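Annotators were shown the component list below and the corresponding predicted structure, then asked to write short factual statements about the assembly.
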Amino acid sequence: MAEFQITTSTNNNIEELLLHGYLDAHTAPQLEAAIGVLVQQGKYNILVNFRELDYISSAGLGVFMVFIEEVRNNNGDIKLCEMKPKVYTVFDLLGFPMLFEILPTSQEATDKFTTSNG
Amino acid sequence: MDQHQSQSSIRSVLWLIVFVAAMVGHTVLDVIRYSIGDSISNIVIALTNGIGALAIASLAIFFYDYSRDNHFTSREDYFREYKRLLFALFIVVLPFGSEGSPANVFSVIFDNILSIARIAATAFIASFVYRVLVYQRIRQTDNYIKVLMYGVAGIFVLALIPSIAPDFNPEVLIIIMSVMLFIIMFLATKRKSWIQTLTYKEKKSLTWMTCVGTLLGMTVCAFSLQSDTPLGNNLDSIVHGFNYVLGLNAMFAAVYSERMFWTTLFSLPNSGVVEKRTFEFSSVAYLNRIAAESTDLEKLYATVTQLAQQASRATSAWCEIQKPNGKFRIAAQYNITEKQILAINDGGVLRNISPTLHDPYLVELIAENKTLGFLARSVESFAKSLMIAPLHNGKDFVGAVYVVNSEPFSFENDDIRALAAFASSASVAIENARLVEDSLQKERYQRELVVGRQIQRKLLPACEPSFKGYEISAYSDPALEVGGDYYDYYTLANGTHCVLIADVSGKGISAAFYMANLKGVCLAVARQVHTVRELVEQINATLFGSMERQMYITLTAVQLNSNGTVTLVRAGHTPALLYGADTVHIIKPSGLGIGLAKPSFFTTCIEEKSIQLQQGETLLLFTDGVNEARNPNGDEIGVEELSELYKSCAQKDEATAGSIINDMVSSIHRFALHTMQHDDITMIAIRRNEVETLEHNGESVETMNQREE
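Structure shown to annotators:
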C-alpha cells in the first residue's frame, strides 16, 4: 500500500497539488493541512491532480468541502483533474461532479482557471 | 518498669557509695601502712586487700547492673561504647603512679586516686567485653561468657592466695589459665559478617578505632600483667592480683580489636560495591512495590527522583516527563527549586540532549562542557557536575532524571552504572504504572462504548415491519462498538411506507452522534412530507450548515407503494441493486450527499427513480462498508462482484427477504475471511410479495391504489 504524499507546484498563479498513494480517513488530515496552508496564504486557485492517487475512500472526500466556500468567496476555485476511473466513481457516487469541476487533464483545468480569471 | 528502673538506680548509687567509702578506707590504711613502715603485720595487709576487694566488688556489681541496662541495640550504640572503651584504655595506660614503694604520703594518696580511676576503667572494659559478646552473639556465647568470668575470677583468687599463704606460687597456673582464656576470647569474637553491611565511612572510622584499640589493649595488657610497672604496681597495691583482672580484660580488648581491625580493613575496598548493590536491590524492590501498590504516577516520579539522588549521591535531582505534545513538564524535584531547574535548562538545552540519549550522560564539570559551558556562571551555586539518565518506555523516550552536584567531578563511574541500573528499573516501573493507568482508562471507555452500542442498537428498528405487499429484512453491524450506519422505516404524511438507509461519513463516536441526530431529524420530517424526494430535501435543509464541513451523510430513501411501485431517491449513497428476471441491475439515480450543498442547489441534483416491482423481485440497499469489504489480500468486493453474490442469493427457489440477507451476510464473511471489518455494514432487502398480502388484505390494496392514482 503506497504511502500518501503530496507534491506541490505553482504554475501561472495556480497551485497544483499532486496526490500520491492512498487517501482515506487517516491521510485526509495531511491534505487538509496542505490546502489550509494555501488558503491561508491567499492562494485560491487550487488544482488537485489525482494522477498518482491509487485509492480514495469516501471518508477522504470531506476534505474538499472544508475550504470550498472560502475559496469561492475569494473568486478562486478548487478543481480536480486526472482521476483514475475507480477514484472518479467514488466522487461520482457522492455527487461531487455537481459541486466541483472534475477535468480529464491538468491542461484543461489550467485553461479553465485562466479563462475564468481573465 | 519505672519502679524497676528507679530501684536499680538507687541500688547503683548505693554500690557507688560503698565503692567510694571502701576506697577512702583503703587510702587511710595505705597511709597508716606507709607511716608505720616495714614493721607492718600481715593482718593490716590482709585488711587493706579486703577493703580493696570490697571496693572492686561493689563497682563490679554497679557495672553489672549498668551492662544489663545498657545493651547495644544499634550500630550507633556500638560505636559510642567502643569510643568509651578507647578512653578507658587510655586512662588506664597513663604512665602515672609510683614504681615500687611510694615516695611520700602524697604519692600514697595520689596512687589511691589513680586506682579509683583505673578500677572504674577496668570495670568499664569488663562491661564492654560482656556487652560486645552479647551484641555479636553466636551459639556458644553464653558459655564463653561464663568461662571467661570464672576464668578471670579464678586467676584473681589464685593471685590473692600468696597474700595469705606466701609459700604458694601461682604463676604457672595463672599463665596456663591465661592462655586458655586467650583461646576462648579468640573463639568468642568470631562473628564479623555484620561489618560488610557498614557504609564506607563507618568502616573507615572503625578501622582507625580498632587500630588504636589494638595498640592500647596490647600496651595495657603488657603493663598490667607485670606487678613491677607503675600500672601493675598501682593495681596490685589495691588488691593483690587485681592487675590480672585488668590485664585479661585488656587482652580481650586487644584480641577483639585486632580481629575487627583486619576484617574491617579487608572489607574496605569492596564496601562501595556492597553498599551500592544493597541500595540497588532495595531501591528496585522499593520501586516495584510502589509501582505495584498504586497507579499514582506522580508518586512514582517523586520516588524515582529521590532514589536517583541517593543512588548517585547527588545534591539534588529532578525528573521531567515529556507530554504528548512534545513539551516537558517537571514531574518531581528534590532539593532544587523550579527557578534553578529553569536556569539550568536555559534555552531548553538539557531537554534537547536527553531525548537523544540511550545511557546516562555525565558532565563532570559544567564549565568545561561544550554545550553546557555557557550555563556555568548562572548555575554554579547549586550545580557544577551533572548526570542525565533517560527514561524509556520500550524504545520510546518518555522523560529523564537529572541529578546535579554542587561539587565538580563528584560522580564516579560507579555512580553512572548505579544510575543506569536504576534508570532502567525506574523505566520499567513507570511503564508498568502507565500500562495499569491506560488499561483502567481503556476499561472505562470500553464500558462507555458498550453502553453506547446498546443505545445505538435501540435507535435502529427492533423488528422487521409488515408493509403490505413487501417482505423486508435488515442487517446492521458497526465496525467499532458504535458506528454511523442507520436504517429505519417510516410512514409518511400520506400513509405510504418508506425505507431509509444512511451512512454518516467516518465511523466510531463522531459518526454515532450524527447518526442519532439524523434519526431525530428523519422522524420529525417524515410526518410532514408526502414523497421521499421531499423527505430527503427536508433532511438536507435541516442538517446543512449544522454539520462540520468535512462531514456528510449519504442516504437512500425508498417509498413503497402498495401497487408494487417503489420510488427511490439517492442522496450520494451507494447504488441499490435490483434483482428481477434473473438479472441484477444497478440503480443509481443522480444525487448529492446530505450536508454538501445548500437546499436550493441540492434540489437540482436530486433525481427520483420509480420502479415497478413484480412478485419476487427484490431491491437490495446497502452501505459502502458492504461493497468495500476486503479479503485478506486487501481486495475489495466491489459492486460488480457484490451483484453476482446477490444474484446467487436472490435466485434461489425458496428465497425470502430474510434468507437473502442471511446468505449475503455469510457470503461477505466468507469473502472477508477473518479480516477485521473496517467499516460499518448495513443491508436491507425489500422483496415484493403480493401473495401473502392479497390473501389477507386484497381489498385494501386496491383501495389504496385508487387513492394514489
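Statements collected:
1. The mean pLDDT of chain A is 86.
2. The interface with chain B takes residues 1, 25, 28, 32, 57-59, 61-63, 65-66, 69, 93-95, 98-99 of chain A (CB under 8 Å).
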